[in-house]
Each structure stands twice: as structure tokens, then as C-alpha cells.
Design goal:
heterotrimer; A mainly alpha (520); B mainly alpha (534); C mainly alpha (101); A: 520 residues; 23 helices; 2 strands; 1% strand; B: 534 residues; mainly alpha; two-stranded antiparallel ribbon; 20 helices
Chain lengths: 520, 534, 101
């Protein structure tokens, strides 16, 4: 007993208490499903939501913990990771309500799905705090493999199969590439796997910059860019979004993406601080490509899910502005944007699911005249889409303003200008959907809207979806206007995280150079 | 002086918005209660404005008044900072008046009334917000809020090509508004101290290159709204496709945001940039006047003709702004107010005509004066005001702009003569197209194909009341312009003084300034003159 | 023996994996190519671990993890391939065109 408590103290295992709660919830769900059987579907999702919310509460109490390093430095519970873990847990907590009805209507087992989703969440949460190469790899794969499973969850649906296979093959190869970069990093640092140790030893071993480090960087970025679906590593996104069950898409576009950004910040800022000029350059290119291609291709989409896929690519491009800025404001604007993106994107996906459940289609043209039949969903979807487009006074506007503000402060004038122009382009395709729903007259209604079933919120699984939707929409409309606490939270998390603070000092020189190279 | 600060402006801005949020719960299918409700909100807000400005506004000072500042997002430096001065006060009242009248004018909107009045009230708030905002990001936010309501208002209740017009409108305006943000951030970040407060921004000193770039950015943004010649193409579509009440707001208030922005940002904040750009502004103003008049001449659609005439009239604002005289800037503000009233009246009356004839093509109309004498009389009055008949507000405004630019010592003699000449050409075309419009619509033989709505052909009391509410101020301003010039005289003088100071400083610093050319030529002729007799 | 040889072998293996990834039409062959790439990583890690970190042998531990995860990934991959074969009766990548690229 003495020994075990000693070990626990040494490992500082309390740091992963939030993850522990999620693991416990996962166990309860799996075992409960085994014992009770199918009937458990009535209460299991709420257990999962309760577990995730408890985990968020636990995260709250770990804010500003004096000794954030756990498991001999393999996991860091600093405030940055707390925010990201919170975002991921919250995104799952909001996603689960929309899965209940969807999975039940498709006739598959709900408990298994929620189990896989919680595993993915766990992977994402561990990834946000992972500070060691093995840990990063394991949590990344935990997230990825569960995502593949979720994508192929509709195993009778060939589209879901196909999406899963594409996602798996592209994902596995990109993680192999990532891993190759990681193995080089391990060698270049003279056999270190801890990120901080790598950061400390690399300058001595390589004697400044080296070709090897640059190669490792490129490989690692390929892996990260896949996760955040940045162009040109985005090809899987539209297919997977179109083919897989919509709740999975919602999770992939928010939770998985947030985890990718957490990994990007932690790994690039510490391990690759030496080549920060290079990775800034690569990410500038990725951001430009993502914003341009994502927004322009989204214009041509006819399927709502594909459009949201391209829009999520574009949104990742906007978020990268904050990463490239590399300042306190830059990082906190990223986090802020991810937070508001969570609500607006999940709100939009909830509406898409509701529409698909009632009509069985995702085509944008089928939304024509929805206002006359279902004003509530029209309003919610309009708010979420306009917020994604950055229309004030919704939350997305403030998120974008903060990103551009931070980018401008860091002197990236060209990138900010491009971001602004492409966000105007994005207004066009978002408002196209709004136009479809609101402007069309009753006689112009689409077939599916004409046959729109009576709105019935009392069906099993509909209430939680309604609650989730209302929460998302309220957050989307008010998070911007009452954004002060959120701003405080994100700024605090950045300023109190040691790796970002030391990095900000190191990066002062490169960002100055960025200013020059970026003035195109 | 009372100690208790009543947040007048915040109340003005938020009242319509909060009231709009209650609209969905009003139990009403036909829209009769909703319209009364919206009208009530509009009137209350207008009364609030008049009351607040009547009792709390000091005409003697150029300081911002009724200011309120609350910290909003300190991390971004954004604050809820509002205030009025002589420049914004008349425009706020103008937008209150026109929006309220527009609500009254949309009495026969029976199609989705709740959504309609909701959007109009949101627009109401945004307009006042734009004119009252004293924080750059708040200004930008208000500027953007107005986009979606206008888009929906055009695309649901508009004419046949409404979707095209609405999309064009939102893309032009959204794309242009980027430049507000970019130029604003550039100015805000310049120098050591970051600030978004408009007054503080105008006190900063900027290098000339930055001023010129920022000026160009703001000019594009506000030029689209005003509109300035090459950026105007959205306007005829949007104004002609929108329904009459929305056209009233578009032409009456939204265009003025552009002019207001030009004065507030381009002149006040960037006087040195303004000196560089002023000749261009004048030239573009003349192009606007002549082009707008010619384009109006070629239109067969009644509302398109009126829309083109708006372009023409806003050209005067540009010239007045660039005249470097307080008379000119004064005239520019007066022209904005006066055009707001006149355009609103004309667009409203064209809506009245359209309700009877169900067409806007002038060649399909004709001779309807016999059946609609009252409408005819009002339309004639509006057209007279628009062609700047003496005794109407348009005359005073355009005259003072003319006087301003012709007495301006900044430009050379020949430049001024050319400007005046070309503008005069535009002025001559204006009566031609306006009178021919009257002729085609009202005079002559009645078009046999034209079917007027039988039950109530001539203007109803409500319509007469709306027109009167616009015509009375037009005539009052024409006879006694001090009514409104009084409110901003001190402010325009201050603005002019500031620009002129910058001008003289620059004249001392650089030899190639336009002013210097003029001065030196005068000096040299003065030097030569004494020698001749000797 | 020198470290370079291990690294070169790993790089060659990795390139073969990439080549197979790009050119294979059969989904199982693609999975095998990915395994090749992961094995290249394992070689790298083993080499580095032996030469640079003989006491900590973190690289060898890493390798064990990579092998385990690769097995899991292959299992999931084969399961999906099986599911798709049941529905479509083919595992030819060219035939999967329900979702346009």
C-alpha cells in the first residue's frame, strides 16, 4: 500500500483524473450494455453525458495545478491541455444527444457506438496533453482507430463502408508518415522521447538546423495536417463527411480537429522550436491553400454534408492563422475560435441530422422552403451557418475578428487580407442555404419539404437532440456578445502555460522575419 | 447638469432590437398587430431620439456628447463606446424618421409580416448603431449587422430579379467592408499604443504612406456604399428590386452611411491622405453626377431611374467633402440629409404608383395624373425637390457645395471652372430626366393597356401623411436651412480647420503640393506685376 | 555495423511502402504497404535505440507499441475490407466510387 501510494505520487496520476472518469464511464457503458442488453439504450447515453460533464468539472478543478507534469513527464496537465481536453469532452457531450435518435433509427446498437465515441474522446483528450512521443503516438492512434470504426459504423451501407475504407487507408498511411518523422526526431535528439528533452538536446546534437530535422518536420506536419484536414491533406474530408453517419462527422469536424490543433501547438512549439521559421512557412502555405480551396470548392457543392466538409477545411485554415501568429493572442484566438466553432458547427450538424431524419436527404436544394414547414430548425440552422460565415453579432464573428486581430498584430497582413476575402466568399455559400430555406415561397418548396412529416419532439431520442440544439444555438448567438469570460479563459490558459511562454520569447526573431516574408 | 447619466444612445440602439425579439411571440397571423407594434416601436424610438437630443445636446460644442463607454472585450480593446456629435446627430434623426416612415409605408406587406418587421427593426438598430459607434470594431460590427436583414428584405419582398440584386448587394458590401477592418486595424496597431477609439485614432499621427493606404481602403469601403462611380453597379439593381419601403431605407439612410464614413474616417482621421486624394474625389464626384444623370436618362424603369439619380446626387457629397471649405463640407452633410428625405419620398411615391399600376416600366404607364391627382402633385413636388428647385432643401445643399468648391483656394482656377462646368451639365440633365419621367408616367393620354386598381386609385390619407412628413422638412430646410445646419456647423468648421491645418503643414514641407503650385503662381504674378510699370 | 545502413534500409523500405500505397488497386495490398511503412519506422527506431540510447532503450519500447498498434489498425482495416466485400463483392479500389473524390 505504501508502495502504491508512493508510485501514484511519483507518477502524479491525479492529473489524469478527468480521463479516468471517462474511462470509468466507458466501462460502465460497456458492462451495463452487456448485463442489461438492448434496453440499456434508454439510459446509457445520459450516463455518458454525465460522465463527460463530470470530467469537465474535474478539469475545472485542475486549473492552475501547481505540478502539471504526470507520468514522468509523459503527460502534461497544463492549462493549455485543460482547455483542449475540455473542448474535446464538451464536443462529445454535445454530439451524443444527436446520436441517440440517429443510431436508433438506423437500427444499430447505441451502446457500442457511444463506447467507441468515448474511446475516441479519450484518445483526443490524452493527445491534448501528451508530451512524449510514445504517448502522442498511442493517443493519436486511439483517436484515429476509433474514428475509423465510427465512420464505418453503418456496416450495411456501402457508402459508409467506402468512407471508412478511404479514411482508414489515408489515415493509416498518414500516421505511418507521421511516425517516420517521429522516429527521425527520436534519433536526432540522441534518443529522447520527451518533447521538452528533445527541445533541450536537439540544438546540441544537430548543432543548429539540420536537414534531418527539416525532413522530420515535413513528415510530422503531414500527419498533423491530415488530422486537421488542411489542404493538400484534405482529400479524405469530403468523402468521409458525405459517407459516414452524420454524428460522426460532427465529432470529426470538432473534437478530432481540436485534438489535431492541440498536437500541432505542443509539438511544433517545443520540439521544432529550432526550425520555427520553416514550420511557420509551411503552415502559412497550408493556411493559404486551405482557405482558398476550402472556400472556393464549397461554392460548388450540392450536398449539405460535403459543403460543411469544405467549410470545415476552410475553417481550419482560419484557425491556422492563430497558430502561425505564434503570439499569446494568436494561440488564445485559436482556442477561442475552436470553442465557438464547437457550438456553431455542432448546432449546424444537429439541424442537418434533424432534417435528414425527417426527410432522408442531405441535398441543399431539398431544403427549399423549409421555413414554411419548420421555422424552428430554419432559424437554428440559419443562426449556425451565419455564425460560421462570420456575420455579427453571432459568435463566429468575434472568433474571426480575434483571429484576424491576432494575425494583424503579428504582422501577417497578407494572410489576414486573404482570410478576410475568403470569409466573404464563405458568406456566399452559407447564405445560399439560408436563402434556400427562408426566401423560397411555398409553391417553390422541394419535394421532401412538401412531404415534411409533422414535427414530433416526443419520439424517443428527440428530446436530447432538442436540448443539444438549443444549447448550441444559444451559445452561438450569445458567446460573441458575452464573450468576456471566454476571452479571459483562453488568454489565461495561454499565458499560464510555460511551453508557450518560453516559445514566445524564442520566436520573437522568426516572427519578425515572417513579417517580411509575408508581405506579398 | 443632472448627475444621473441616462444611457440615451444605448437605449436608442437597443430598443428596436429588443423589441424585434418579441415579434415572434405576438399572436397574429395577418400582420395587423405586428405592423402596429413595429410602428409603435419606431415612433417611440424616434421620440426618444428627439427628446434626448432636444434636452441633452449642446449645439455649441464639437465634443462628443451623450457618450457612454463600457468595457466589452478588453483583450481585443473593444468597448461599447457610443457618442454623437454634429455629424452623426442629424443622421441619427434622419434614420429614425425614415425607418419609422418606412414601417408606416409597408402597411400592405401581408406576406410573412413577422419576418419583415423583425428585419426592419433589426435594421433600424444597426443604422443608429453605425452613426453612434465611437469604437472601430463596434462600428464594423454595426456595419455588418445590417447586411443580412437587407439581403433578406430584398430577396423575399423584392421584384422579379430580387435574388440577383440581393446577392450582388451582399457581396459588394461584404467585400468592401473588409477594407474597413483592414484599414482600421492598420491604424489601430500603428505606433506603440493600441486603440480602437475613433477620437483617439484621429489624434494619432501616421506616416503619409500609411495614411494614403488606409485612406484608399476606407474609400473603397465607403465608396461602395455611397456609391462612387466604378463601384456603384449594385445600387440600381438593389434599389429597383427592393420593395418601396426598403428602397426608402436603402436610399434614405444606407447611402448616407458611406458619406458619414468618408467624413468621419477619411477626413477626420486621415487629413493628410485626404489632401492627396481630394482631387480624385472631386473628379469622381463629377463623374458620378454626370454619369448618374446620363444613366438615369437611359432607364425605362421608374425605380431604376430614381436609383441612378441617387448616384448623381451623391456625387455632390463627394465634391463637397473634397472642397476644403466649411461651406462645402456643410453642404455635403446637408445634401446627405436632404437627399435622404427626397429619395425616400420619391421611392415611396413610386411604390404608391406601383401598387396601382403593377408595373414600373414607364412606357407602360401614362396619363395617370387624371385619376391620381394627389399622387401626381406629391410626385411633382418630390421631383422638383430632387432637381434642386430653389426653396427646397436640395437647392440649398447643392448651392453651398457649389459655392464651397468655387471659393476653395486649394484648387487652381481652371480646375474649378472645369468642375463647375461639368457639374452644371449634370445639373441640366437632371431636370430633363425628372420632368420626362413625370411626363411619361402622369401626363398625356392614358395607356389603354394600363389597368389601375379600381377600389382606391388615388393616394390614401396614410400615403399622403407619409409624403407630407417627408416634404415638410424638405421645404422647411429649403427655406430655413439653419434648422439642420445649426446642429453641425461647429463640427464641420472643426473638420475643415483640421484638414486645412494639415494642408498648410504639408504645403510648408513639400514643394509639389497642389496648393503650393497655386500659391507660388500667385506669388510670382504678384512679384512680376510691380515690374511692368517700371 | 554503422547506423547509416539501418537508416538507409528503413528509408528504402519506407519508399517501397509509399510506392505500393500509390500503385496498388487491391485494398489488402494497400494495407500491406502501410505495414511496410510502419516496419520501416520500427527499423529506424531500433537502429537509433541501439546506437544512441542503449541504456534507456526507449526506441525498443516504442517499437513494441508500434507493432501492437499496427496490429490493431490492420484488424480494423481488414474488418472494414470484409464489410465492404460483403456489400460490394469487390475490394478493388477503383470500384469504390460512390463518393466522388
Amino acid at each position: 500500500m505504501d508502495f502504491s501510494s508512493n508510485i501514484a505520487a511519483q507518477l502524479n496520476a491525479g492529473i489524469i483524473l478527468p480521463e479516468g472518469i471517462v474511462i470509468l464511464t466507458l466501462m460502465v457503458i460497456l458492462v451495463g450494455d452487456l448485463i442489461v442488453g438492448r434496453n440499456s439504450a434508454r439510459w446509457l447515453p445520459y450516463v455518458a453525458i454525465a460522465g463527460l460533464l463530470t470530467s469537465i468539472v474535474a478539469l475545472y478543478f485542475q486549473w492552475d495545478t501547481p505540478d502539471p507534469d504526470a507520468f514522468l513527464g509523459a503527460f502534461s496537465g497544463d492549462n493549455l491541455s485543460i482547455v483542449f481536453r475540455g473542448i474535446i469532452a464538451l464536443s462529445t457531450a454535445v454530439t451524443i444527444p444527436m446520436t441517440i435518435r440517429y443510431i436508433q433509427q438506423s437500427g444499430t446498437s447505441l451502446a457500442e457506438f457511444i463506447g467507441i465515441m468515448l474511446t475516441a474522446t479519450l484518445g483526443g483528450m490524452f493527445l491534448s496533453g501528451a508530451n512524449e512521443l510514445v504517448m502522442i503516438f498511442i493517443s493519436l492512434e486511439m483517436l484515429s482507430i476509433s474514428s475509423y470504426l465510427m465512420t464505418g459504423y453503418m456496416k450495411r451501407d456501402p457508402r459508409s463502408n467506402e468512407a471508412a475504407l478511404k479514411y482508414l487507408l489515408i489515415g493509416a498511411s498518414s500516421s505511418a508518415i507521421f511516425l517516420y518523422g517521429v522516429s527521425l526526431l527520436y534519433g536526432l535528439s540522441g534518443g529522447e522521447t520527451n518533447l521538452n528533452a528533445i527541445a533541450a538536446t536537439i540544438p546540441d546534437v544537430t548543432g543548429g538546423q539540420s536537414l534531418g530535422l527539416a525532413i522530420a518536420l515535413v513528415f510530422v506536419i503531414a500527419g498533423i495536417a491530415f488530422k486537421i484536414s488542411a489542404v493538400p491533406f484534405h482529400q479524405w474530408t469530403p468523402d468521409v463527411y458525405e459517407g459516414s453517419p452524420t454524428p460522426v462527422v460532427a465529432f470529426l469536424s470538432v473534437g478530432s480537429k481540436a485534438a489535431g490543433f492541440a498536437l500541432a501547438i505542443r509539438m511544433l512549439v517545443t520540439a521544432f522550436a529550432l526550425v520555427s521559421e520553416q514550420w511557420h512557412f509551411i503552415f502559412t502555405a497550408l493556411a493559404i491553400l486551405s482557405m482558398v480551396l476550402g472556400n472556393v470548392v464549397a461554392l460548388a457543392q450540392t450536398s449539405m454534408k460535403r459543403m460543411l466538409a469544405y467549410s470545415s477545411i476552410a475553417q481550419a485554415g482560419f484557425v491556422m492563422i492563430g497558430l502561425i501568429a505564434g503570439t499569446d493572442a494568436g494561440y488564445s484566438s485559436m482556442i477561442f475560435y475552436l470553442l465557438v466553432y464547437l457550438f456553431m458547427n455542432l448546432g449546424a450538424f444537429t439541424c442537418v441530422i434533424l432534417f435528414a431524419l425527417r426527410t432522408g436527404t442531405d441535398q441543399i436544394s431539398e431544403y427549399a422552403g423549409l421555413y414554411h414547414k419548420d421555422p424552428a430548425i430554419t432559424l437554428c440552422l440559419s443562426i449556425c451557418l451565419l455564425s460560421l460565415g462570420g456575420i455579427p453579432p453571432l459568435a463566429g464573428f468575434f472568433g474571426k475578428i480575434y483571429l484576424f486581430w491576432a494575425g494583424w498584430q503579428a504582422g501577417m497582413y497578407g494572410l489576414v487580407l486573404l482570410g478576410l476575402v475568403t470569409s466573404v466568399v464563405s458568406i456566399y455559400y452559407y447564405i445560399r442555404v439560408v436563402k434556400m430555406m427562408v426566401v423560397k415561397e411555398p409553391q417553390e418548396m422541394s419535394e421532401s419539404v412538401k412531404n415534411y412529416p409533422e414535427i414530433n419532439w416526443t419520439l424517443p431520442g428527440m428530446r436530447p437532440m432538442q436540448v443539444g440544439l438549443i444549447i448550441s444555438v444559444i451559445a452561438t448567438s450569445l458567446a460573441g456578445i458575452l464573450s468576456n469570460p471566454l476571452f479571459t479563459l483562453t488568454t489565461d490558459s495561454v499565458t499560464s502555460t510555460p511551453i508557450l511562454q518560453s516559445a514566445a520569447v524564442v520566436q520573437e526573431l522568426p516572427t519578425d522575419q515572417m513579417e517580411i516574408s509575408d508581405n506579398f | 447638469m443632472e448627475n444621473i447619466q441616462i444611457p440615451w444612445l444605448t437605449a436608442m440602439i437597443s430598443l428596436p432590437l429588443i423589441a424585434a425579439l418579441a415579434i415572434p411571440v405576438i399572436p397574429d397571423k395577418e400582420g395587423k398587430k405586428v405592423r402596429l407594434y413595429a410602428l409603435g416601436v419606431g415612433i417611440v424610438d424616434l421620440v426618444l431620439m428627439v427628446y434626448a437630443f432636444w434636452y441633452n445636446y449642446n449645439l455649441e460644442t464639437t465634443e462628443l456628447q451623450l457618450t457612454e463607454t463600457y468595457n466589452w472585450i478588453p483583450q481585443l480593446g473593444v468597448s461599447w463606446s457610443v457618442g454623437v456629435d454634429g455629424l452623426s446627430m442629424p443622421l441619427i434623426i434622419l434614420s429614425g424618421l425614415i425607418s419609422t416612415l418606412a414601417i408606416l409605408a409597408s402597411w400592405q406587406v401581408t406576406h410573412r409580416p413577422k419576418l419583415f418587421y423583425f428585419l426592419v427593426l433589426v435594421l433600424y438598430s444597426a443604422q443608429i448603431g453605425v452613426f453612434a459607434a465611437q469604437d472601430l470594431l463596434l462600428f464594423f460590427l454595426m456595419w455588418e449587422i445590417e447586411l443580412v436583414p437587407v439581403y433578406l428584405l430584398i430577396s423575399i419582398w423584392g421584384g422579379k430579379k430580387r435574388l440577383y440584386a440581393a446577392t450582388k448587394f451582399i457581396l459588394y458590401t461584404a467585400l468592401a467592408s473588409i477594407f474597413i477592418l483592414v484599414a482600421g486595424l492598420a491604424l489601430a496597431f500603428y505606433g506603440g499604443e493600441f486603440t480602437l477609439n475613433l477620437t483617439e485614432l484621429s489624434l494619432k499621427e501616421y506616416p503619409l504612406a500609411l495614411e494614403v493606404l488606409a485612406y484608399a481602403g476606407f474609400f473603397i469601403a465607403f465608396g461602395v456604399k455611397l456609391p462612387v462611380f466604378p463601384l456603384h453597379t449594385w445600387l440600381p439593381d438593389a434599389h429597383s428590386q427592393a420593395s418601396a419601403p426598403i428602397s426608402m431605407i436603402l436610399a434614405g439612410v444606407l447611402l448616407k452611411m458611406g458619406g458619414y464614413g468618408l467624413i468621419r474616417f477619411n477626413i477626420e482621421m486621415l487629413p493628410h491622405g485626404h489632401i492627396q486624394f481630394a482631387p480624385l474625389l472631386i473628379v469622381l464626384g463629377v463623374v458620378n453626377i454626370v454619369y448618374g444623370a446620363l444613366a438615369a436618362f437611359g432607364q425605362t424603369n421608374l425605380k431604376r431611374r430614381l436609383a441612378s439619380s441617387s448616384i448623381s446626387h451623391m456625387g455632390f457629397v463627394l465634391i463637397g467633402i473634397a472642397s476644403f471649405t466649411d461651406l462645402g463640407i456643410n453642404g455635403a452633410v446637408l445634401q446627405m440629409v436632404s437627399h435622404g428625405l427626397i429619395a425616400a419620398a420619391l421611392f415611396f411615391l413610386s411604390g404608391v404608383v406601383y401598387d396601382r399600376t403593377h408595373t414600373l416600366m414607364m412606357d407602360e404607364m401614362g396619363g395617370i395624373a387624371q385619376e391620381m391627382p394627389k399622387t401626381f402633385a406629391m410626385f411633382t413636388a418630390g421631383a422638383m425637390a430632387s432637381l434642386a428647385l430653389p426653396g427646397m432643401s436640395g437647392f440649398v445643399a447643392e448651392l453651398s457645395i457649389f459655392l464651397g468648391v468655387s471659393t476653395s483656394d486649394v484648387y487652381s482656377q481652371s480646375f474649378r471652372v472645369g468642375i463647375i462646368f461639368l457639374t452644371a451639365v449634370g445639373l441640366i440633365i437632371t431636370p430633363i430626366y425628372l420632368l420626362s419621367m413625370l411626363r411619361e408616367v402622369f401626363y398625356g393620354q392614358k395607356n389603354p393597356q394600363l389597368k389601375l386598381d379600381g377600389f382606391s386609385v388615388d393616394a390614401k390619407p396614410r400615403e399622403i401623411y407619409i409624403t407630407a412628413a417627408l416634404l415638410v422638412p424638405i421645404i422647411a430646410l429649403g427655406l430655413y436651412p439653419k434648422l439642420v445646419t445649426n446642429t453641425y456647423d461647429v463640427k464641420t468648421i472643426e473638420v475643415t480647420t483640421k484638414v486645412r491645418e494639415a494642408l498648410s503643414v504639408m504645403a510648408e514641407q513639400q514643394g509639389n503640393n497642389l496648393n503650393v503650385n497655386l500659391l507660388s503662381s500667385q506669388q510670382s504674378s504678384a512679384m512680376i506685376a510691380p515690374h511692368i510699370p517700371g | 555495423m554503422q547506423l547509416q545502413y539501418f537508416l538507409l534500409l528503413a528509408a528504402a523500405l519506407f519508399c517501397i511502402g509509399i510506392y505500393g500505397l500509390i500503385t496498388s488497386r487491391n485494398a489488402v495490398r494497400v494495407l500491406m504497404s502501410i505495414e511496410l511503412m510502419l516496419n520501416a519506422v520500427n527499423l529506424n527506431l531500433m537502429g537509433f535505440s541501439n546506437f544512441l540510447d542503449p541504456t534507456g532503450i526507449k526506441g525498443q519500447v516504442f517499437t513494441v507499441f508500434v507493432i501492437t498498434v499496427a496490429a490493431a489498425e490492420a484488424a480494423v482495416g481488414l474488418a472494414i475490407v470484409l464489410a465492404i466485400y460483403r456489400n460490394r463483392e469487390t475490394i478493388d479500389m477503383e470500384q469504390f466510387n460512390l463518393l466522388k473524390w
